[in-house]
């Protein structure tokens, strides 16, 4: 079928050109967050708006729909997991979503997203939920319209979740998260009742920034971040950004009086970057060479940050290095005391400061509240009270005000509804992948204790990174681990680690 091949190549060239433009956008975005002088902001916004317009125009050109129509039913599309089949499937998905949304709704969502963030920032500063409520009500209404325009398999929330976790169903996420809740709430309560707490002052000591930076570079390289194809810089809000097939950059922030922030932040961002660096460069910008979902992306960062970086075996290898870097703060601290301090579990009010175990409860209650808001079971003015009820029920705590309660996260103000679930999906995917890697590779702990991380990284690259978007996240989990997503591996991991620490 020479015609089909020519059509496919034309589409591939078109999407490669779009990838060139979006990588330039990312480059400008990276520069804006890392280097741009304050007075350069206005012109930078013009540059980025121009590029966004160019990308949008190319993504919605009508000939794409015709070309995809020609390819449907051809051999190239027959196997949805093949490079060509996955490309055609994903291009069609993206194109359909673009043309289904009325331009007026897209513009209104963009406008209210910017405005919502401004209103939210002030409302949080003033601890004034009532000032934020009207625009949040409007955002929810627009998200309902978005869901209705896109269509959905079972419920409106599916359409919003699909933006971040393509193909995932609300009912499936609810199934896994409710299983998690049933076991996690009692686990957190047992830990609180154990009477044991680590001495966390050990990680709140002087940690000179120059040594932290050197150590951060060393550990990122050690786990497999390729500095020939990436950089590590400093920013206020850490992130990872892919700027091309051989250019993936991460950032961190240093706190001279707190060890965990930069060290685990770098492991986290390096985990994201190792995923990007493990994609197939020859398919860059095309579905077989792109990351599959936010949940899978987050699984790669959480895996290195928590499953590896907070394991005792990792610290058997790394603790002497860290003690040498910070002799005045850690030379006299035994490994076990340090290991307990970095695995402190205690209920808290602020999501971004939460530990590995309680973090998922913060996500769970947001996931439930979002659905209630979207369904109309909960009105925006009643949201702060519902928030407090759930914090009391799941974490045994109640915020003293809305600034440290319902106003703490930026996501809803920008219209990102359906996003939070991907954080917990990331933790769940990470544990399930890690348990499988441990079986396949035969005892990861012994390898970590010897400072060997390449076998795990190679396994992840082969099983997950190089698969691109050839499978959905749900299919990928099932292919790699032989089972659908489950809460059991995460609970098993937490019990195995926290049990001995807290005497459970
Ligand atoms: Zn992340």
Q: Determine the N-to-C terminus distance.
A: 64 Å
Number of domains: 2
- The overall pLDDT, averaged over residues, is 96
CATH architect. name of the largest domain: Orthogonal Bundle
Question: What is the CATH topology descriptor of the largest domain?
Answer: Neurolysin, domain 3
Alpha plus pi helix count: 22
The secondary-structure class comes to mainly alpha
**Rg computed from alpha carbons, rounded to a whole number of angstroms:** 23 Å
Quick structural overview:
This protein has two domains: 2-131; 170-502, Neurolysin, domain 3 (Orthogonal Bundle).
Structural summary, described in words:
The protein is mostly helical and 504 residues long. The protein folds into two domains: 2-131; 170-502, Neurolysin, domain 3, CATH 1.10.1370. The protein has helices at 2-34, 41-59, 62-71, 75-78, 83-100, 103-126, 129-150, 156-161, 170-193, 209-223, 260-277, 294-308, 312-325, 327-330, 335-341, 359-375, 383-395, 421-441, 444-449, 454-463, 473-481, 488-502, and strands spanning 230-234, 240-244, 247-252. The protein has a three-stranded mixed sheet. The termini are far apart. 38% of the residues are buried. The protein binds zinc ion (ZN). Residues 268, 272, 298, 301 line the site of zinc ion. Residues 268, 272, 298, 301 line the site of zinc ion (ZN).
């Amino acid at each position: 079928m020479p015609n089909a091949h020519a059509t496919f190549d034309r589409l591939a060239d078109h999407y490669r050109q779009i990838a060139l433009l979006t990588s330039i956008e990312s480059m400008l975005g990276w520069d804006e967050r890392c280097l741009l002088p304050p007075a350069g902001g206005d012109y930078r916004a013009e540059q980025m708006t121009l590029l966004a317009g160019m990308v949008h125009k190319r993504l919605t050109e009508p000939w794409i729909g015709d070309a995809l129509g020609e390819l449907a039913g051809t051999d190239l599309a027959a196997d949805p997991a093949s490079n060509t089949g996955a490309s055609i499937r994903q291009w069609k998905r993206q194109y359909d979503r673009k043309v289904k949304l009325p331009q007026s709704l897209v513009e209104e969502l963009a406008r209210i997203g910017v405005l919502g963030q401004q209103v939210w920032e002030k409302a949080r500063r003033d601890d004034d939920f009532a000032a934020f409520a009207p625009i949040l009500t409007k955002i929810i209404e627009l998200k309902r319209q978005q869901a209705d325009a896109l269509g959905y398999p079972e419920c409106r929330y599916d359409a919003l979740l699909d933006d971040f976790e393509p193909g995932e169903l609300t009912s499936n996420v609810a199934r896994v998260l409710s299983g998690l809740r049933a076991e996690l709430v009692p686990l957190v309560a047992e830990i609180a009742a154990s009477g044991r707490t680590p001495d966390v002052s050990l990680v709140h000591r002087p940690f000179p920034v120059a040594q932290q930076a050197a150590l951060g570079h060393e550990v990122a390289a050690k786990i497999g971040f390729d500095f020939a194809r990436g950089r590590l810089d400093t920013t206020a809000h850490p992130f990872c950004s892919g700027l091309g097939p051989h250019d993936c950059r991460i950032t961190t922030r240093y706190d001279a009086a707190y060890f965990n922030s930069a060290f685990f932040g770098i492991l986290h961002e390096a985990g994201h970057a190792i995923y990007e660096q493990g994609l197939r460069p020859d398919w860059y910008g095309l579905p077989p060479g792109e990351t599959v979902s936010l949940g899978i992306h987050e699984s790669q960062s959480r895996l290195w940050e928590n499953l590896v970086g907070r394991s005792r075996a990792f610290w058997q290898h790394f603790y002497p290095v860290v003690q040498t870097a910070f002799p005045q703060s850690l030379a006299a601290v035994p490994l076990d005391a340090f290991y307990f301090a970095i695995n402190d579990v205690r209920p808290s009010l602020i999501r971004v400061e939460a530990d590995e175990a309680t973090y998922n409860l913060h996500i769970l209650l947001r996931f439930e509240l979002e659905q209630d808001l979207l369904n109309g079971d909960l009105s925006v003015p009643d949201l702060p009270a519902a928030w407090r009820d759930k914090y009391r029920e799941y974490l045994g705590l109640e915020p003293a005000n809305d600034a440290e309660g319902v106003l703490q996260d930026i996501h809803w103000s920008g219209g990102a509804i359906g996003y939070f679930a991907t954080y917990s999906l990331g933790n769940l995917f990470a544990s399930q992948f890690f348990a499988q890697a441990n079986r396949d590779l035969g005892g990861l702990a012994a390898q970590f204790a010897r400072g060997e991380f390449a076998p795990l990284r190679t396994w992840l690259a082969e099983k997950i990174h190089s698969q691109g978007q050839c499978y959905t996240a749900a299919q990928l989990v099932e292919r790699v681990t032989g089972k659908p997503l489950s809460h059991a591996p995460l609970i098993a991991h937490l019990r195995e680690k926290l049990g001995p620490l807290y005497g459970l």
